[in-house]
Structures are given as C-alpha cells and as structure tokens.
Amino acid sequence: MTSLDRTRLGSVPSAVLPSGTPSGVPCHNAPTADDYAQRAASADPTLLIAYVSQGDLYLTDGAGPGRQLYRSGDVTSIYLSGDGALVAFLRRLDGLHHSLWVVPTSGGDARALVSTAHLAAIPTATGADGTEVGQVEWVPNSHAITYSTRPAVDGEGAETSGDRWRVDADTGEEVASPGDLSRPASDVGSAVPPPTCASAESWSASPDHSVLSVSPSPHDLIAAIVEHDPPRDPNIWQLALASCDGVWKDVYERACLIEFDGWAPDGKNFLFEKHVYECDPAFDQGDVDEPADADSVELFIGRPCMIAVGVLPSQYASAGRWLDDDHFVYRTQSTYGGGADTRWQMRLGNVAGTGRLLLEAVGEPVYDFIER
Prior knowledge:
By secondary structure, this protein is mostly beta strands. The protein has 4 helices and 24 strands. A 4-stranded antiparallel β-sheet has the order 3-2-1-24, with no helix packed on it. A 4-stranded antiparallel β-sheet has the order 4-5-6-7. A 4-stranded antiparallel β-sheet has the order 8-9-10-11. A hairpin with a 6-residue loop joins strand 2 and strand 3 (67-70). The relative contact order is 0.15. Mean pLDDT is 75; it is low at 1-24, 180-196, 198-205 and 283-294.
C-alpha cells in the first residue's frame, strides 16, 4: 500500500467542521484573512486566451473585446501553442467527422493539417463509422502536434486507440506513423497509484469508486481526499484533509458531489467545487425542509487552517485552475448543464475570493490559455 493507506487514515474519527480549524492540522504558520486581502492586491498575471463562442474561434488578453480568428460555427476544441503563435483547433463537420486545423494568433489564413479524407483513409475497427481525432497536444518548445485517432461511432465515442501521429504545424508535414510515439501510461490518464504521497499528482485511488481522488499538496505534507461518506447516504461525498504520513485525517466539507480542482503552487490554498441538487447534505440530515439551491455548482477556496471562502460570482462556478500562489482562472455559466445557448464567462480570481471578468461567450465552454 501507499502512504495514503485508507485503513490507517479512516481509523481517525472526525466531526463535520462547518467553521474553524480542523483539529489535526498544524496551523502555526497559517496566513490570516488580512494576509490574503493584501495578496489579492498583487498584480494580475498577463494571459493570452483562445476561446470558442457559437462555434467560432476568438483571441483575447482578457483586457478588452475578443478578436475573431476563424469563423465556421463548428469549432469544438482548441489548443494554444506554448509560444502563443498558433492555435490548433478541431472542427466537427457532423456528428462523426473531425478535421484538425491551425491558425496564427497574429491573424491570417487557417490551414487544415488533418482533413476528414485523411482520417477516412485510416483503417478502423469493425463496426465503426470511421476514424476521428482523440487527444491533441503540442510538443513542448516546438510547433509540432501529436494527436491520437480512435474509431468513430454513432453515439458515445470510443476510447482513444494506441495510434498516435505527429504533424508539423508550420509545414503540414506528417513526421511519424501510428505507434511510433510511445508515452508513459501516466501521461494518458491511467489511474496508477503512486509509490508515495510525495511523488503524485491527482490520481483515481479506488477501483470500487469509494475514493474519487487523492491529491497531495506541493509540499508533500497534506493530501486532499475526495471519498464517499460511509455512515451516511452513499450519494454524499466528503472532502478530507490528511497528513501524508497517515497520522491524522479531518473532514473539511461534505456535499452531494465534490470535485477537487487543485492546490496552489505554495500549498496553502486549494480549489474545490460543491455540486448541490436533490441530495443536498443539509436536506439529507434533516436540517432543511427541501433541497436548497437545486442544480447549483459553487467554487470554493479551501485552506487547511481556515474555513472555505466562496468565489464570487458563484452562479454555476467551476473549473478552477491555479496560475500562481494568489491567482486562478475559473468559469461561470447561466445554466447548470450548459448547451448551445448557454452564456458563460471566464474569470480571473484571487485568494480573497474576488476577481474580474476576462471574457464572455455563448455555447459550450471551450478555451485554452498561456501566461505571458
């Protein structure tokens, strides 16, 4: 077993902590609320953001209106190169057929790198309706793109196959054949438990789904664990903080669904989402007459030694991603499930729970960004 042995950690009882300090967390160097307010006043990071609105591709720095880079109404995914010079994007011409394109962020004509005809010529599994693009990634410090292919089926997509290709985005030249690009299993999302708490990022920890994720902090002292709350309704999840040596464990928050969005680089803050609908924990415990805030998602800043702070605005806020110790980006949207007519915003937040608007768009939330 790893140092995050659930048998050991689970043996430490803890009550729900709606406020105050978790009993086992060492808090002698914890920042104060005034410290966070001062840190929130630090200079905002500078971003370059590519995003999709109503199927068209736009670019912005978050300080002004977006500039349209490509108009087609069918862009579904985007990938900004590390140097910010190019945006690769997928177009879905119908329910089954993809093509991979690239366009300069400085403006100019878009070019098809992988056409639907090219994908149609790739042999596929028996019973599939064709071949589509799976994962797309930029090779670091280059303008080369690796992408995988998978069988396209009418309905839910198939798993990504082992076929991987590499194409030069500047020349359009294919520089490798399927299977030539080997990647470690952890690089394609495999849920392999790490040997120690200190060597892991987030990973899926339990085959029986009783543990959703284990996320060690950058300093390898504390891990955030999202797991079922066994004594209660099995639909209820809890976020617990535990020491990586297994000495203590405290429940930090409960909700009908919790998603952990990551630790800040300094390990002093973390982001998590609470999804609240018919299994509202307060309703389940008999504390309220009916579920509150049905079909809502709220984003919180958690701190090992302080009560969580809600991020504003909170309407369907999710997808938090840290930029530095003090800042993160997240999105809000007008409806719970999203859709073609959903209005959504990308926002810059800070450790005080405030922030500002970066962009507003319509449709499924799709964006990518780099820091400059």
